[in-house]
TrEMBL record:
<feature type="transmembrane region" description="Helical">
    <location>
        <begin position="472"/>
        <end position="501"/>
    </location>
</feature>
<keyword id="KW-0407">Ion channel</keyword>
<dbReference type="GO" id="GO:0034707">
    <property type="term" value="C:chloride channel complex"/>
</dbReference>
<dbReference type="Pfam" id="PF00654">
    <property type="entry name" value="Voltage_CLC"/>
</dbReference>
<keyword id="KW-0129">CBS domain</keyword>
<keyword id="KW-1133">Transmembrane helix</keyword>
<dbReference type="GO" id="GO:0005254">
    <property type="term" value="F:chloride channel activity"/>
</dbReference>
<keyword id="KW-0812">Transmembrane</keyword>
<feature type="transmembrane region" description="Helical">
    <location>
        <begin position="260"/>
        <end position="283"/>
    </location>
</feature>
<dbReference type="InterPro" id="IPR001807">
    <property type="entry name" value="ClC"/>
</dbReference>
<dbReference type="InterPro" id="IPR051280">
    <property type="entry name" value="Cl-channel/antiporter"/>
</dbReference>
<feature type="transmembrane region" description="Helical">
    <location>
        <begin position="95"/>
        <end position="116"/>
    </location>
</feature>
<keyword id="KW-0677">Repeat</keyword>
<feature type="transmembrane region" description="Helical">
    <location>
        <begin position="295"/>
        <end position="314"/>
    </location>
</feature>
<comment type="similarity">
    <text>Belongs to the chloride channel (TC 2.A.49) family.</text>
</comment>
<feature type="transmembrane region" description="Helical">
    <location>
        <begin position="193"/>
        <end position="216"/>
    </location>
</feature>
<dbReference type="InterPro" id="IPR000644">
    <property type="entry name" value="CBS_dom"/>
</dbReference>
């Protein structure tokens, strides 16, 4: 459990939440009944469902379909005597070793993520390709019912495997994982979001889910996968799984792990799209909350390694040793080789596509929000209900993909086409389906294909009339609807590919309708612009999406139009709601610190959300008092006060972390008299003894075994006390304090009095104190007021 409301307890009750046979303690304010109605108006996370406890503490969140406690991360540089001694004692060779290790880990992250991305593509192309090839062969022999049975049965088996992995092994692996990675890089650590089990399920669950024909992508899960790989390497392995490396002890802190996970997220995008520059910009624009030039270099190096690995592996597969993988998802989408020219009518059409993307994108986010809330009610009933929901969506998807093409009319094959018509094999633009020889079914060419091949067909400019207007409309409605109802089921699922599919279909539709007015833009380019507009309308990214699409299509000449359509779609969609990832972060109850403070915070000061009683420790404290404070509270930081006889008047010595106190008490270096003996502690302990644990759990209060005699002894806290914590005066505006808290990546912010003669510290602000549900719960008069 994370730290409580600035350690300013206002009189509450303790509520037990049963979760995996553990009891999670949380403070629920005594006026919770009246506050719950106000909170539902302020912020409507999934935690507000009637089956759950009202989240008045911002310290629990949804992971998978269950409620887990939330921890904040320590991104602040701690300066205590023990760490300073370690810094002074480090030799030049150790400094070089640390620098080399940072770049070595970046190299390993790039290598492993590249291999995993390539493995995902090979697996999907072969599994889905074999399924589609078998279905096509049965259709050629007029065995229509057998073909549907094979198609739907294969999809259901693959979907069940993906759902079972998520339901029983790693519930945190469901969904894209981008919201969780984004929250982690903001300073929020949720249960098992980057665990080795999550990595395993993310890889194989994504393969099964995409191969099952769901309208999902493997791109979002690749971001989560890259982050899991970086986390596993950065913590020196896992104690839980007995995989540790002592040489990586320098990285046993949240600050270095944050940088590595940022590299992992960028590598995931680079591996999914073969877009190394786009991966860097994605991490900068969407994922990371803190950035600096040194991190830019390492992130770029990581994505460059991914690009080299993918290119080398693709060259190997050109010798036909990778099964059905040949023109798979890692091959760029070739839009057009001609130079695009455009005039005023073309620009008007582009503006129309941008507006449509913004409107459809905001509606998409709204409907995804509603579907996620509905699915959560089902998923929280247990693994069996999760799997049943996945099977239901799988059967519905199979019926749509196989059934809708029967309503499409057959089209004669074009004359003089470079590609064979009808298509032989699993991929291609001209699926024969139920048509007579010399004809093809254009709707089957979109539905009965892998998602990557469907996008490639829509981006094609070789035959303007390849897909009829009615086909494009039906495909758009189908993909748009299936994408909405599929996201939220218990399988790893990305949003990039469904959004690109839907956007490219209505973009090509607009191109067909306005074909007579456009002289320089063909339907393939309209399809690309439609994909860009829908991406901008749903995800609200601009620069990174622009570069990713340009790297995907290898068409730099489309840059001005791409920029225009992204800016328009984002501006239109922002008028209605937030981006899809921001909505999911909010729904899950993750306490994400926004880059800008809420307007009403300018009317409050730091002292307004911080009041006593405050749990403080003396610089030389009795062991029993420390043990009692650790046992009776869930605070992760305690103010340390220097008191007489060590100083003339009480003054703030600094801040000590809960984890450091546990290590110190476990070492049992106490004295019978209340005296300074920090030098003895500095001699016995090493800074690495206080390093943060990895996947294995660190020390708990229950692990301490202290006798009655030891309880009456004293311990000197000076060596482990952070003597330079960030502090603000109590009269600082809450908005200013919120910006400071986020920009510095803090976990604790000490509030000190403005006037002398008072206790040296007023309280401690934590992430929870800046959350709207907490602030507006204390000051409900700001709920119905708009401040500019």
């Amino acid at each position: 459990m994370d730290e409580k409301s600035s350690y300013c307890e206002r009189g509450g009750v303790v509520v037990d939440i049963e979760e995996n046979d553990k009891s999670v303690l949380m403070m629920v304010e005594s006026n919770a009944s009246s506050f719950s109605e106000r909170e539902a108006f302020i912020r409507e996370p999934l935690l507000n469902l009637k089956s759950r406890v009202v989240n008045t503490s911002s310290q629990i969140a949804i992971v998978g379909a269950k409620v887990y406690p939330i921890e904040s991360l320590d991104y602040e540089i701690i300066e205590n005597e023990l760490i300073k001694q370690d810094w002074r004692s480090r030799k030049r060779v150790e400094i070089y070793q640390y620098i080399v290790l940072k770049w070595t880990l970046a190299l390993l992250i790039g290598l492993l993520t590249g291999f995993v991305g390539f493995f995902n593509n090979i697996a999907v192309e072969n599994i889905a390709g074999f399924k589609l090839l078998l279905t096509s062969n049965l259709m050629l022999h007029q065995k229509h019912f057998q073909a549907f049975a094979v198609f739907a049965g294969s999809n259901m088996i693959l979907a069940t495997c993906a759902a079972a992995l998520c339901a029983f092994i790693a519930p945190a692996a469901a969904g894209s994982g981008i919201p969780e990675v984004k929250a982690y890089l903001n300073g929020v650590d949720a249960h098992s979001i980057l665990a080795p089990s999550t990595l395993f399920v993310k890889i194989f669950g994504s393969i099964f889910g995409v191969s099952a024909g769901f309208v999902v992508g493997k791109e979002g899960p690749m971001v989560h996968t890259g982050s899991c790989i970086a986390n596993l390497l950065g913590q020196g392995g896992s104690r839980k799984y007995h995989l540790t490396w002592k040489c990586l002890r320098y990285f046993k802190n949240d600050r270095d792990r944050r940088d590595l996970i940022t590299c992992g997220a960028a590598a995931g995008v680079a591996a999914a799209f073969r877009a190394p520059v786009g991966g860097v910009l994605f991490a900068l624009e969407e994922a990371a909350s803190w950035w600096r030039s040194a991190l830019l270099w390492r992130t770029f190096f990581t994505t460059a390694v991914v690009a080299v690995v993918l290119r080398a592996l693709i060259q190997v597969c050109r010798s036909d040793i990778c099964g059905l993988f040949g023109q798979g998802g890692l091959i760029m989408f070739d839009v057009n080789s001609t130079i695009p020219t455009y005039n005023t009518p073309d620009l008007l059409a582009v503006i129309l596509i941008g507006v449509l993307g913004g409107l459809l994108g905001s509606l998409y986010n709204y409907l995804v929000d509603k579907v996620l809330r509905t699915y959560t009610i089902i998923n929280e009933k247990g693994p069996a209900f999760k799997i049943l929901l996945v099977i239901t969506i799988s059967l519905l998807t199979s019926c749509c993909a196989y059934g809708l093409p029967w309503f499409a009319q057959c089209i004669p094959c074009p004359t003089g086409s470079e590609e064979k018509c009808p298509t032989q094999g699993r991929a291609g633009n001209y699926k024969i389906f139920q048509c007579q020889p010399g004809h093809y079914n254009d709707l089957a060419s979109l539905f009965l294909n892998t998602n990557d091949d469907a996008i490639r067909n829509l981006f094609s400019s070789k035959n303007i009339n390849e897909f009829r207007i009615s086909t494009l409309f039906i495909f758009f409605i189908g993909i748009y609807s299936l994408g909405i109802i599929t996201y939220g089921i218990a399988v790893p699922s990305g949003l990039f590919i469904p959004v690109i599919l839907a956007g490219s279909s209505y973009g090509r539709l607009v191109g067909r309708l306005l074909g007579s007015l456009s002289s320089g833009l063909d339907v393939g380019l309209f399809s690309l612009l439609g994909a860009a507009s829908f991406l901008g309308g749903t995800m609200r990214m601009t620069v990174s999406l622009c570069v990713i699409l340009l790297e995907l299509t290898d068409n730099l000449l489309m840059l001005p139009l791409m920029m225009l359509v992204l800016l328009i779609s984002k501006s239109v969609a922002d008028s209605f709601n937030k981006g899809v990832y921001d909505q999911i972060v909010k729904m899950k109850g993750l306490p994400y610190m926004e880059i800008h403070a809420e307007p009403y915070m300018r009317h409050l000061v730091a002292g307004d959300v911080c009041s006593g009683p405050l749990n403080t420790l003396s610089s030389v404290e009795k062991v029993g008092n420390i043990f009692h404070a650790l046992q009776m509270t869930r605070h992760n930081g305690f103010p340390v006060i220097d008191e007489p006889p060590f100083v003339d008047a009480p003054e703030l010595c600094g801040l000590v972390l809960r984890s450091h106190l546990l290590v110190l008490l476990k070492g049992k270096k106490f004295t019978k008299n209340r005296e300074l003996f920090g030098s003895e502690i500095l001699r016995i302990f090493h800074a690495f003894d206080f390093a943060k644990a990895g996947s294995g759990k660190g020390l708990k209060v229950e692990d301490l075994e202290l006798s009655e005699e030891e309880m009456e002894m004293y311990v000197d806290l000076h060596p482990i006390t952070n003597t330079s914590p960030y502090t603000v005066v109590e009269t600082m505006s809450l908005a200013k304090a919120a910006v400071l808290f986020r920009e510095l990546g803090l976990r604790h912010l000490c509030v000190v009095p403005k006037t002398p003669g008072r206790p040296p510290i007023v309280g401690i602000l934590t992430r929870h104190d800046f959350m709207p549900e907490h602030v507006l719960g204390l000051y409900p008069q700001f709920i119905n007021h708009n401040y500019s």
